[in-house]
Amino acid sequence: MFCLFSLSLISWDKMTKDLAKTHLRDQGVRSYLDDIFRLEYVENTGAAMSFADDLNPRLGFWLLGILPLAILLGLFAYVILHVQEMRIARMIGFSMIFAGGLGNILDRLVFDRHVTDFMNLGIQNFRTGIFNFADLWITTGVILLVWRAGRSAKTDHPVDSTGQHV
Q1: Within 13 Å, how many C-alpha atoms sit on residue 66's CB side?
Q2: d(CA 26, CA 84)
Q3: The one catalytic residue among 34, 135, 156, 160
Q4: Does the annotation mark 112 as catalytic?
Q5: pTM for the complete prediction?
Q6: 117 catalytic, yes or no?
Q7: Is 116 helix (H, G, I), strand (E, B) or coil?
Q8: What pLDDT digit, counting tens, does each position of 78-125 carry?
Q9: Is the model's pLDDT at 157 over the cut of 60?
Q10: How many Å apart are CA 66 and CA 81, to the nearest integer?
Q11: Which phi and psi angles does 119 have, rounded to 5°?
Q12: N or C: which end of the chain has fewer CB within 10 A?
């Protein structure tokens, strides 16, 4: 299930980036919902919000491509080894992080460090950076894991037969 879900998320990310390249490149910003949602094509060579965009290309390849790929391979191995004992929400969270990370790393490795970003949310001047579905998968996966960890911490306390914490 982990592999199928990850593959479907990676495919969705790839398809939407291809659509953005086809329909948004060399176009102006498209605004929807009273400018809350914008579509705007950007090729990002840095990390989130163009962080480290000015890195030496060789250093950027290793720090933003190979190192995260090694971390994702470790995450993949961890999940495969422990998937039988994971709750579904935790497995989905890990799958989202894995798929999002791999979606952006594939772009970096195939397109000379360039990741396609195309969505932006906000109200007036309070806006997110421009992002893609891979970024959305990573963020949602982290939120899901943090939320599950918080719920587990609350429910892991021993209770007596009346449901009171001991």
Answers
A1: 7
A2: 47
A3: 135
A4: no
A5: 0.81
A6: yes
A7: strand
A8: 999 998 888 999 999 999 999 999 999 998 888 777 889 999 999 999
A9: no
A10: 23
A11: -115, 150
A12: C
- pLDDT, residue 159, reads 46
Average pLDDT, the chain: 86
- Copy the structure tokens of residue 134: 């891979």
Q: Which of 34, 117, 156, 160 is catalytic?
A: 117
Give the Å distances, CA to CA, from 148 to 55, 66, 75, 151: 36, 29, 18, 5
Beta bridge partners of 121: 37
**What's the pLDDT band for 49 if we cut at 50, 70, 90?**
low
Q: Which of 100, 99, 109 minimizes the C-alpha distance to 135?
A: 100
Residue 140, Cβ density class (10 Å: 0-12 exposed, 13-18 middle, ≥19 buried):
middle
